[in-house]
Structure formats: C-alpha cells, structure tokens
Design brief:
Blueprint: E1 11-14, E2 32-34, H1 40-44, E3 53-55, E4 73-74, H2 77-84, E5 93-96, H3 105-127, H4 131-135, E6 143-144, E7 147-148, H5 149-159, E8 166-178, E9 181-195, E10 199-209
Length: about 220
C-alpha cells in the first residue's frame, strides 16, 4: 500500500480519535473515526499513506458504491451511529481484511490458549531477571523503542540482572492474527511494570512473528 493508491489497507488497526461532524464537510456524514494507519508493522514494511477513517455518508446519500472511498471505510449514517455506541477511542480494534474464515469453537479456544501461553512465558521469563530466557523470545529482526536486536540484547543483559526484583502484570489483553499473514500475531495489553527502582503502567503493543524454525 502506497500513498495515493486509493486502496483500503488490510491489517489490525485501532481507533485513535473521534471527529465531530460539525468539524467536517458534509461528505463525511455523521462523523469520523480515524485509525492508526500506518501502524508499526506498516512502517516497518515501508507502507505509506495516511488519513484512513471510518465515516458516514453525505446527508443526501444513504450509501456510496463499493471502491468509492479513496481508501476509507464508509458506511451509512445509521450504521455509523449504531457502531459509535460501542467504540472506545484508543482501544477498539478495527480488522480490515479481504475475507473472513470461520473456525469452530474448539479450534479457536485451543489457538487462544496457545497464544496466551506464549505471552505468559514471556512475562514469567521477564520476572525471572534471567536476561537470556527473556531475550529468547525476541527475533534477530526485532526493532522497538529505538533499539535494534543487538542494542536491545546489550541493554537487557545489563539491566535485568541488576534489579533486585521485577514484577510484571498484564491487563485487558487482546490478540489478533494479522489478515493475510497467519504467522503474525498482534498482541496489545496494559502493562504494569515494577522493580526496586522503577514503576510504570502503560499500553504496549507487540508484533509476534513465527519464524522459519517454528518459534
């Protein structure tokens, strides 16, 4: 996806804001919810563009034709008002995909439990203060918080063992497979981190990618 291609991106996104219709031209109908395109994964893969919104239709139009959105997601004003009641800015996910494949409940539960086990092991290994266990969860292609893999390794090998204790609690966790790439998992949670000399609680988002070795 590149700037100007007028395509709606596929991926896992989150609502970032609400724009009141009084601040918008009539084209956008009863309001707009911008999403966080391009997200971190898009930026990593050099996908460009901006301004992807969920929004309504002009006051004299009930619906617009498919592929008539310049990349946005357009719905009737009735539908827009209905979903607005269920949207929490910053936390509501938006899954944009070419198609939906339904799975049975047993498969879904087994997959969910497996992903939760991955996340829990990462949390436990972090609390252990064993830097090598903790770093075993990170790809050599890792990039985050301004660090590439090697600088992250050096930093964590220095910091983790220096703590007298580390306590990590996770809340409000969500996990979504990425449309078009079933080996990619987007994990979002509220993280409460505390050590003997530092405490911080904030929302963290991670991209977990299965590599060729199956990890």
């Amino acid at each position: 996806f590149t700037e100007g291609d007028q395509k709606t991106p596929t991926g896992v996104y989150f609502i970032t804001d609400y724009i009141d219709p009084k601040k918008l031209p009539d084209l956008y109908g009863d309001g707009a919810f911008p999403i966080n395109y391009p997200n971190a994964w898009d930026v990593r893969h050099k996908r460009t563009g901006y301004g992807i919104w969920l929004h309504g239709t002009p006051s004299n139009t009930y619906t617009r034709p498919p592929r008539d959105s310049d990349g946005c997601v357009i719905m009737s004003n009735d539908d827009f008002r209905t979903i607005s009641e269920y949207i929490d800015v910053k936390t509501t996910p938006v899954i944009l995909t070419e198609k939906i494949d339904w799975v049975n409940k047993q498969y879904w539960q087994a997959s969910r439990d497996q992903y939760r086990d991955f996340l829990e092991q990462w949390r436990v290994d972090w609390e252990s203060r064993d830097a090598e266990k903790y770093l075993s969860h990170y790809s050599k292609q890792y990039y985050g918080l301004g660090n590439d893999y090697q600088s992250w390794v050096e930093y964590k090998r220095q910091v983790n063992p220096s703590k007298r204790f580390i306590e990590v609690n996770l809340y409000n966790t969500s996990m979504f497979l990425y449309p078009g790439d079933e080996d990619l998992l987007v994990v979002t949670f509220e993280q409460d981190y505390q050590s003997d000399n530092f405490h911080r609680r904030f929302i963290k988002r991670q991209y977990w990618k299965m590599e060729k070795d199956g990890k």
